[in-house]
Amino acid sequence: MHRRSQLLLAAALALLFAHAAAAKDMPKKEKLLRPLIIAHRGSPCTLPEETIEGYTAALNAGVDFIELDAVSTKDGHLICRHGITLDDSTNIREHPDLWRKRRWRLMPDGRNLTGCFTADYDLGEINKLRATQSFAFRDQYYNGQFRIPTVADVIKLVKKRLDSGLNGGLYIETKEPSYHEDIGLPLEGKLVDALVKGGIGPDILPRHVVLQSFETQSLRKVAAKLRAAGTQQRGMPSMTWLFSCDAIPDPAAVAAFAIFGQGLGPDKAVVEDLRPSAACGQNVTNGWEGQCGQPGRTCSGEVKIGGPCTQRTFEGDGDGCNHLLQRAYNNHLFVHTWTVRREHSYIPRNFVHNVMYELDYLGAEGLGLQLPGLIVDCPQVAMDWLRSRDWYGTQPRRQAAEGQVGWLTGQRRGNTGWREFGQAAAPHWAALALTAVGLVALSSCAVWSAIVSCRRHQSKRYEVFPDITVAVPSGYSDYGREQLSFGGLAVPPSPVRSGDMQLTSLDSKSLPHYAPSSSGKAPSTAGDVEPADPPPKVPLQAPPHAASPPSHAASSQLHAQQKQPEPR
């Protein structure tokens, strides 16, 4: 390489090493990792809830998890229904023989509940039913078209996607576990059996399965049965405690759950610190009494954005906030909130009927609560929101907990909530300038090297075919050189330099000349093969870098030599 290009390359490398040294000492900034998107009951905004079709649509939209509720049939099969009754989510009214089993039950917590309970029907009767849209204000077009899936069916769907390298995760709730225990149909053992039989083992459970319940005792039972089935601590799924805004746990209860659990799942009214609003048609005199989590006529309440509730500073400072996030972060628990919906009555008044603003407040980095997981009714809307926010990367917020791989949010710093482990170098103008100079220097080196190489190549006038070995019969001192003509001008008879052409002296009888066979291919040299006449001499065309024409004196000398008769 030319010495000047060597100097340029050395300078460019020195600049790049200087940039690397400067970047090492740069201040770091937090990498923007996106929240997890959990599809609540599949795709209930457009399709009947908890159906294979709805779950498939949500997974195809790109969500991380699909949320399903496990309830039991009379014969002990687990099916996917959001409630323990079938009245609102199936077409059971169209089946008089099944509808007549409707009755009321006294629940363990003292509630009186009337309906068609799943525990009064076996799986064969459930298979006669079809799913319907449970919200009257949503599209009813697909009512009666999709069957009621079992939990095993949904596990099979997700396992198949994971085996194919696609996205997928199970977010399973044990629905009313105390009720099922009272009637002799406990859920926990059957759920563990379904996971094991579905091929969801320790390699999948930690990263692709989250178990949730409103009753922490049910989660303890599932964990115990998983350990009994041979699952080690590091292979356990994450456990999430669900609660609504009328049952916010106190700090002692959160600390007790953190001994074996990994996350909290509060109603979004809790994490948003929603306040009743007269503009939403709510009673502002009694606070949340009687309307906890209930939407108003046009909105669900009002968020005090920018107030002390957003900052989550200190527990018990008298600011009127619940400080749930601080309790969770103090105990190394993640927070996945439910449920974000696109309809106006479910959106706080501050967000002017725009669910995108609410998603920003709940999940965006630096704008609001930056929660690590959002449970949504409209997965396509949530994924569109993610793609429209260019501050997000492609990786979700997650981290390994002590002794277990769980879905957490990162490393807690101070009282401002957790941040991400991922770090990225902050922009630094000096470093960017060094990088630019280095790239320019490297480009200059490449261009200069190409120019020098081209000029050196052109200086080799007679290096036409450097890799060809020319066989020369004995007695021919300059055999074939008259054939290497460039545009009718013969090559000067000067000897070929070493490395240009290797001239080998051979006997003329030993030169193989073959006639084409009937197949159009040259025959083999083995055996008796009659040599054909030598092929006619065809002048070769000059390559683009051919030598320049010789002078007039040289041309005359060559012309005189060519007139001499060739020896026989």
Quick gist of this model?
Helices cover 30% and strands 14% of the residues. It is α/β, with parallel strands linked by helices. The longest helix has 31 residues, at 429-459.
Structural commentary:
- This protein is an alpha/beta fold.
- It has 17 helices and 19 strands.
- It has helices spanning 3-24, 52-61, 96-99, 123-126, 151-163, 177-182, 188-197, 205-208, 216-228, 251-257, 268-271, 308-311, 324-330, 355-363, 379-388, 429-459, 552-563; strands spanning 28-30, 36-40, 65-72, 78-80, 103-106, 112-115, 170-174, 209-213, 238-243, 263-266, 334-340, 373-376, 399-401, 404-406, 411-412, 418-419, 423-425, 469-473, 502-506.
- It has an 8-stranded parallel β-barrel with strand order 2-3-7-8-9-10-11-12, surrounded by 6 helices.
- Helix 1 packs antiparallel against helix 16 (429-459).
- The model is unreliable at 23-31, 310-318, 398-428, 459-530 and 542-548 (pLDDT under 50).
